[in-house]
Amino acid sequence: MQIQAGIFLRSTKALRDTYFEDAVLYIAEHNSNGAVGFVINKTFGRSLNELVAYKNAGYFPLFAGGPVDTEHLFILHQSPELIADAMPVAAGIYMGGNFDQAVAAIRNNALTTTGIKIFVGYCGWDTGELEAEVEEGSWELVQGADPLLFAQA
């Protein structure tokens, strides 16, 4: 299996009793420096409006994207026309961009939970680390995953 941006991975029993137990990842970036991904199926336990900086944003769920950089928010979305400076990932999915524009689009209902996910933290691997984890059996490819699965989780 070739790891690339836009694929989904599911943790195996090898990761039981770890942060990644029963996790589904979306790989958002993969290059010669390593990989970046987000756990897409685990909620964070707080919503966007519960964060002081976004108290007027209204309710919007947050997801526990990973154990790295949990002091920051990250976004995956389908709306580069609403969120400037977004980077294409694959199949109509974009990463990052102007977060204030994203919040404004959420406030005015131009973006809903089916078009954007907001993550606290991310998952990161140095060169070859993710490939080694797949090789040792910690992750398996989610076969036939719809590119929009991230919005449905």
From TrEMBL:
InterPro entries: AlgH-like
Pfam families, sorted: DUF179
Domain of life the protein comes from: Bacteria
One Gene Ontology term, aspect cellular component: cytosol
PANTHER family, per the entry: UNCHARACTERIZED PROTEIN YQGE (PTHR30327), UPF0301 PROTEIN YQGE (PTHR30327:SF1)
Protein family membership: Belongs to the UPF0301 (AlgH) family.
Protein name: Putative transcriptional regulator
UniProt lineage: Bacteria, Pseudomonadati, Bacteroidota, Chitinophagia, Chitinophagales
